[in-house]
Amino acid sequence: IGYCLNLTEQELTAEAGLCVVIPCSFTNADEFTPKHIIWYKCEASQTKCSDADIIFHSNKNTDKKAQPGFEGRVSRLEPDVSQKNCSIIINDLKESDSGSYQLRVTGELNGKQDGFSFSQRVTVSVKGLIQKPTVMIPTLTEGQQATLTCTAPGLCSGSVPGITWTWRGAGGTESYIIGNSTDFKTESLTAFRQRHSSTLTFNPSAEHHNTNVTCKIHFTGETTTEKTSGLNVNYKGKPQIIGNKTVKEGDDLNLTCSIESFPPALTVWKKLGSYVNLHNDTGSATLVIYNVTTEHSGLYICSDRVFSGFSKIQDGSGCVLQSEVLTCVCISEGFPLPAITVFLSCFGAFLTTELISAPLLRLFSKQLVQTAKHGG
Ligand SMILES: *[C@@H]1O[C@H](CO)[C@@H](O)[C@H](O)[C@H]1NC(C)=O
Ligand SMILES: *[C@@H]1O[C@H](CO)[C@@H](O)[C@H](O)[C@H]1NC(C)=O
Ligand SMILES: *[C@@H]1O[C@H](CO)[C@@H](O)[C@H](O)[C@H]1NC(C)=O
Ligand SMILES: *[C@@H]1O[C@H](CO)[C@@H](O)[C@H](O)[C@H]1NC(C)=O
Ligand SMILES: *[C@@H]1O[C@H](CO)[C@@H](O)[C@H](O)[C@H]1NC(C)=O
Ligand SMILES: *[C@@H]1O[C@H](CO)[C@@H](O)[C@H](O)[C@H]1NC(C)=O
Ligand SMILES: *[C@@H]1O[C@H](CO)[C@@H](O)[C@H](O)[C@H]1NC(C)=O
Ligand SMILES: *[C@@H]1O[C@H](CO)[C@@H](O)[C@H](O)[C@H]1NC(C)=O
């Protein structure tokens, strides 16, 4: 066998900012001892590239230098020439790197300097960067610190890219996440393969729900790529009750309780002392009682969960009438605590009639405290 070049890929496409590996191996005549490899880039029409076209020379002690534009960007994968592995990696690609690449091997033939230029070429086409960063977002829960990871595309050994994060709050206005921290990491996979990533750590809250975070990668030569990801934060606000909480006998009661949350929370209406839930819905539930009578008097609770009877309302819960002001205290137990709104909202509403009598109220309060005690 003589001089033969094995290029497994003669047409390569790559993206600006990233890198390309030209896989290559050769064979030579037995009398020839290869010493150095030289890669050129020149017009495909030229049968032989010239010294001015050198992009890589494995001999560092020669005046035949690589073109300044390629200096430091080209590395051979196998430093031992006797392996006859002429593969190279070109980093920090630019569109102008597109072209036809030629190999020359120099060495000794019967003790004399010799070399062989292979006519086979590799065509490299460098296009604009289309690959996007990879962004990993864990499940975000309000109050639990979370770390987002953005990984740059391409596994190259060239210049280290810059990675920046931006956040767009509600309304799409550029803002920033208070108290965030970022960290940059480079992982070496092989001698010529590196993975670059950045992490963004912050404390998610309801204000981050339905907002966007963007990770942007800056490669050399003003090549950038970015990815925008939507954030969903699991959170739950306190129940909010709207509507007239005081009704006269014969009126209709119409109270809406909404729990701002993601995902939408179960919203339950129940009457203290009753073992059945009056009404439930997700996100927001409306309690309607037509033609209210004194029998409807009571404490109505809106909660984010179904609880049986009084089991979660502890001792000490109850109402006290002082002058004309009714004060209710609600102590709940259980973990996590049911989201019950505090005081009046805690009990939802105090339904009364204009003719409500003090004895009825006292009876009611007493009953409440007693049942609370029984409930434990
Ligand atoms: C060319 O190289 C490839 C990969 O190293 C190898 O699988 C293949 O056998 C080689 N072909 C020749 C003709 O040597
Ligand atoms: C050349 O060497 C590199 C690095 O050791 C190796 O990954 C690659 O497979 C080799 N290529 C050939 C054609 O032998
Ligand atoms: C988030 O990005 C999506 C898609 O790009 C867009 O439709 C939405 O308006 C953005 N939201 C905000 C809050 O910027
Ligand atoms: C992180 O916080 C810094 C200042 O504290 C800010 O400049 C940067 O924009 C923030 N990043 C994000 C993604 O909010
Ligand atoms: C609530 O209803 C009562 C009884 O009908 C009425 O006197 C009061 O004005 C109402 N309050 C509001 C804010 O509508
Ligand atoms: C209850 O009030 C809401 C808004 O205040 C209204 O849209 C709804 O029709 C009312 N429902 C009834 C049954 O009166
Ligand atoms: C919600 O109410 C429906 C009927 O209105 C009932 O079938 C269902 O079991 C209730 N869900 C919960 C969680 O209480
Ligand atoms: C309201 O309830 C009272 C007592 O049950 C009844 O007499 C009255 O007819 C009812 N009114 C309406 C409008 O249903």
UniProtKB/TrEMBL annotation:
This is B-cell receptor CD22. One of its GO terms (molecular function) is sialic acid binding. It comes from the Eukaryota. GO terms for cellular component: plasma membrane. It comes from Oreochromis aureus (Israeli tilapia). It is a single-pass type I membrane protein. Keywords: Cell adhesion, Disulfide bond, Lectin, Membrane, Transmembrane, Transmembrane helix. Gene3D superfamilies: Immunoglobulins. PANTHER family: BRANCHED CHAIN KETO ACID DEHYDROGENASE E1 SUBUNIT BETA,-LIKE-RELATED, SIALIC ACID BINDING IMMUNOGLOBULIN-LIKE LECTIN. SMART domains: IG, IGc2. PROSITE patterns: IG_LIKE. Most highly expressed siglec (sialic acid-binding immunoglobulin-like lectin) on B-cells that plays a role in various aspects of B-cell biology including differentiation, antigen presentation, and trafficking to bone marrow. Binds to alpha 2,6-linked sialic acid residues of surface molecules such as CD22 itself, CD45 and IgM in a cis configuration. Can also bind to ligands on other cells as an adhesion molecule in a trans configuration. Residues 133-232, 239-302 form the Ig-like domain. It is found in: Membrane. Belongs to the immunoglobulin superfamily. SIGLEC (sialic acid binding Ig-like lectin) family.
